Amino acid sequence: MNRPRLAAGFFLALAFLFLSAGGAHAQWVFVARKVLGRVESMTQSQQSNTPRYDVATVMLEANPDKVYQTVLATVASHKDYKLVQRNDATRNIEVSNGKLSAGVHVVALQDKLSQLVIASVIPPNGPSPTSFAVGNILRICAEMKVVCTVEAPPPQ
Question: In this predicted model, which residue has the larger pLDDT, 36 or 77?
Fold first, then answer.
């Protein structure tokens, strides 16, 4: 009857599903390779008497646990930095230098692919936030011997 046709259709659909899933993974890896080491940042514009946010992020081709350990070692090596809170299970820490505070999060994307995010709040009329979040990401990249570049902000 139609059993050979049904079996052939089933195997064809299964092969298509397998190939499309593999293609999607390959596209993700291709995109990830293009953004490795590229530091992106976002800072709220200055407004009087209002705190501002500052966020910097980078994808690193490195084990997430190694990135997290490097973050902890970098914080410990700076006498001005104080570890306020630490959660090893989620790879989150909060750090302060007395004037500014920041949250640092290491996200595991794959075994050897990590995203490092640093976010801080800048008090009203506080110092330039870019040097804090981006500077710390570049410091961690240097400690890991990974080349990271800062993206120029888009023209306004």
Answer: 77
Containing 63, the helix (H) or strand (E) segment is none
* Order of strands, sheet of 82-87, starting from the edge strand that comes earlier in the sequence: 82-87, 92-96, 101-110, 113-122, 52-60, 38-43, 149-150
Q: Predicted confidence band at 5 (pLDDT cuts at 50, 70, 90)?
A: low
Angle at alpha carbon of residue 148, lines to 103 and 141, rounded to 5°: 55
Q: How many CA atoms lie within 13 A of 11 on its CB side?
A: 6
Residue type for position 85: Q
CB 71 within 8 A of CB 104: yes
pTM attached to this predicted model: 0.71
- 77 sits in which H/E element: helix 64-77
The answer to whether residue 88 scores a pLDDT higher than 70 is yes
